[in-house]
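Recall the central idea of this unit: under ordinary conditions, the amino acid sequence of a chain determines the structure it adopts. In this exercise we apply that idea directly, starting from the sequence alone.
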Amino acid sequence: MANIKSAKKRIKVIETKTLRNRMVKSALKTNIKQFLATVAEGKAEEAKVEFNKTVKALDMAASKGVIHKNKAARTKSRLAAKLNA
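Accordingly, the structure predicted from this sequence is:
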């Protein structure tokens, strides 16, 4: 356990950020699963709406530093390919 005041504060801050990152990642995974389920059902119009939501969530996660920007781009590319298929 940390003894120095600044180290104690860093531990608190890291815990807070970890919780936020976990929440964002979880929501992102849920978004992706919903999109994939819509695509599997063959609902084209709903899939486009879900795709836009998912892309926005990916961009937000990348801008916040939760995921790497290249991972966001790669995921968007793969999802777009599934949407067009």
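Helices lie at 5-41, 44-64, 69-84.
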